[in-house]
Sequence to fold (252 residues):
Amino acid sequence: MSVPFWTDDERQTAEEYWLSSKDPEDLLRGSLDGIEEERGVRFKRKLRLFAVECLRRISHLFRDSRSRGWIEILEQNADGTISDNQQDCLGTEVVDPPNDDHFQGDDPIVSQVACAWQALCLASDPDFRPFDANCVACWARDALYPIAGPLDLTDEKRVQHNKHQEEIQVALLRDIFGNPFRPVTLDPSWLIPKVKTLAQAIYDERAFERMPELADALAEAGCSNQDILSHCRGPGPHVRGCWAVDVVLGKE
Fold:
């Protein structure tokens, strides 16, 4: 019999962090770290998809199209359409012939590109854990700041930049994981063909502007779960891995 990661009180505290904190590290290392083992492979998929979204937000910084293409490879690996071995084989093509983004990444404090490359490399680790996801988020925030270099807490603009980026990353985490301490289950009778077809289209086409349609279709099918209905009708952000779409598609 496995030993729980937390006591009941510690688990409650971790859930409170998840619901209230505006710091991605609190969510990743303070909350998700403790439920990693019990959620298994599906947890790792969501963690990788969070990293992919962080990378998408900095993809414009890459000068080599292979670097941007690698983000797609990581997403396919997360969804299981590319194996770890296939990813390894494809990885050599990203740096050979020489990739200028790669050389920038050798010194991550010299440029935004270098910070972005560090995030890309960390997201590529096959044994991807909450600690790694937090590092990806940190490098992504650094990459988006126009002046490269280590965090300077006396730089008020930099501090405000980080605060804004952290709020975005927290919103992404909550969209992807929902409340991981209280996963939502749906009555199978609500998952009529119209609902599942629409959810699959939203997922495949990244048509997240259609999320209110999914709420309407679920309501028409008899769904009374306000958590999923309000999330679908909410402002988002919604990204691939969104818990509401995942639960309809059986990916949770």
User: Anything to note?
Assistant: The longest helix spans residues 156-177. Residues 8-177 form one domain. Residues 44 and 183 are 16 Å apart (CA to CA).
